[in-house]
Write a structure and sequence with these properties.
Number of helices of chain B: 2
Helix content of chain B: 25-40%
Shape of chain B: elongated
CATH topology of chain A: BH3618-like
Number of domains of chain B: 2
Strand order of the largest sheet of chain B: 1-2-3
CATH superfamily of chain A: BH3618-like
Strand content of chain B: 25-35%
Largest interface: A-B, 36 and 27 residues
Oligomer: heterodimer
Largest sheet of chain B: 3 strands, antiparallel
Helix content of chain A: under 10%
Structural class of chain B: alpha+beta
Strand content of chain A: 25-35%
Structural class of chain A: mainly beta
Number of domains of chain A: 1
Chain lengths: 155, 74
């Protein structure tokens, strides 16, 4: 079984079939095409998406419906084609995994945020993924994950 | 912000960059851009996502996970 030495989780083993492929990479990480989802006990609902090629690259994710149960995902036709989907409105949790990248707070006066503007969408059937940017929607790239009196402005 | 009205087929210049309105329909506008090859042209939402991805791509430590779970009330 292939192994990777990761910065975040030490040595991890994974099955080749557990690798998700992002044919376009991710914006700012266009060369990163292969990821595995790492589970750790006691961390639900957080998910971790570890790069197979870069041992330091890991993203913290939240299932999009855990952030917004009403979340509407609409794909462009070319995005659906890359994912091998016939519908531009795949069912979250049934056809696709849809998760938001989380940005942890870096300072005490910051709150963690989730990028609802550009969720990661992975087709369960073929393991293909795309980061789907949804301009023209009301979704924020820095949706606050806490309700506090004073939110640090995000940029 | 400068606001200007243009019809399909008309264009305007920003320095040496020419932007032409090619097609207008519904809620969408199709633009053509003529600019020096070395000039990066990127959709605003892609740039936002690039910045956000870079900021989110930090080594994940157990302490960070615990803080995040506590903040999420889990």
């Amino acid at each position: 079984m292939p192994q990777i030495r990761t910065e975040s989780f030490g040595e991890i083993e994974f099955a080749e079939s557990a690798v998700f492929r992002f044919p376009l990479g991710l914006p700012a990480f266009e060369d990163e095409r292969e990821f595995v989802f790492v589970e750790r006990p006691g961390t639900a609902p957080l998910l971790f998406m570890q790069s197979v090629t870069s041992h330091t690259l890991c993203f913290i994710l939240l299932p999009i419906l855990a952030v917004d149960p009403e979340y509407q995902l609409v794909l462009e036709e070319d995005q659906a084609a890359i994912l091998g989907l016939s519908s531009t409105r795949p069912r979250i949790g049934e056809d696709v995994l849809c998760a938001a990248i989380v940005r942890a707070a870096r300072r005490p006066d910051e709150v963690p945020t989730a990028n609802l503007l550009a969720p990661l969408v992975v087709n369960f059937r073929n393991g293909l993924g795309v980061q789907v940017i949804q301009p023209g929607t009301r979704y924020s790239h820095c949706h606050p994950l806490l309700k506090t009196e004073e939110l640090a402005p995000c940029s | 912000m400068l606001v200007m009205r243009r019809r399909a087929g008309e264009s305007f210049l920003i320095g040496e960059v020419e932007i032409q309105v090619l097609e207008v329909g519904g809620s969408r506008v199709k633009l053509g851009i003529r600019a020096p090859a070395e000039m990066a042209i990127v959709r605003q939402e892609v740039q936002v996502t690039e910045t956000e991805n870079r900021a989110a791509a930090v080594p994940v430590s157990r302490g960070m996970i615990d803080t995040l779970l506590r903040q999420l009330g889990r």
